[in-house]
Amino acid sequence: MTSRIDLTDKAKELIQELTDKHGPLMFYQAGGCCEGTQPQCFEKGGFYPRMNDAMIGLVEGYEFWIDRDLFEYWQFSHFTLDVLDGFGPGGFSLETPLGKTFKIHYRLFSEDELKDLEPVTRY
Fold first, then answer.
1. How does DSSP classify residue 98?
2. CB-side exposure of 96: number of CA atoms within 13 Å?
3. Is the distance from CB of 104 to CB of 39 less than 8 angstroms?
4. SS3 state of residue 117
5. Residues 84-107: pLDDT tens digits?
6. 77, 95, 121: which is closest to 13 by C-alpha?
7. Is pLDDT of 35 > 70?
8. Which Pfam families does the entry mention (predicted)?
9. Quick one: CA torsion of 91, 20, 66, 98, rounded to 10 degrees?
10. Dihedral, CA atoms, 11, 17, 18, 20, nearest 10 degrees?
11. Which of 45, 9, 44 is nearest to 23 (CA)?
12. Tens of pLDDT along 107-117?
């Protein structure tokens, strides 16, 4: 099956660092408001997805949730979780005090990939 989300080596390293410090994690990407569409990292259970939000896959074993409206817009896109130096648009995510910010790179799925996509889980 075609994965809906992958991650860079830099993201893997930061996730390990955050896991060592905070324990199990979760990710949520909102559709706007104060954090824009920046992916946010929380301690597991530190954020509750809304009804019909979509869990598109796991990153290093941790759930990656997407706002239901954002998923409708990006459902035909592959996500790659990456890390940049600096601060994103907000300060709620666990990596912020480290001077890092998670970022998503998008690309459209090919026709072949669309035929074999991993299913999403809805909350």
1. G
2. 14
3. yes
4. strand
5. 998 776 668 999 999 999 999 999
6. 95
7. no
8. DUF779
9. 20
10. 140
11. 44
12. 999 999 999 99
Distance, in Å, from the CA atom of 103 to the CA atom of 88, rounded to the nearest integer, reads 9
Domains in the chain: ranges and CATH? 5-115 (2.60.300)
* Alpha-carbon distance values, 106 to 5, 22, 25, 74 (Å): 9, 28, 22, 9
Give the distance, in angstroms, between the CA of residue 102 and the centroid of all CA atoms in the same chain: 8
Place of tokens 């080596």: 9
Helix, strand, or coil here: 5?
strand
Of 44, 46, 42, 40, the residue nearest 24 (C-alpha)? 44
Tens digit of pLDDT for each residue in 47-79? 999 999 999 999 999 999 999 999 999 999 999
Strand pairing report for 62-66 and 25-29:
parallel
Is the CB of residue 81 less than 8 Å from the CB of residue 50? no
The per-residue pLDDT for 89 is 63
Phi, then psi, of 65 in degrees rounded to 5 = -100, 150
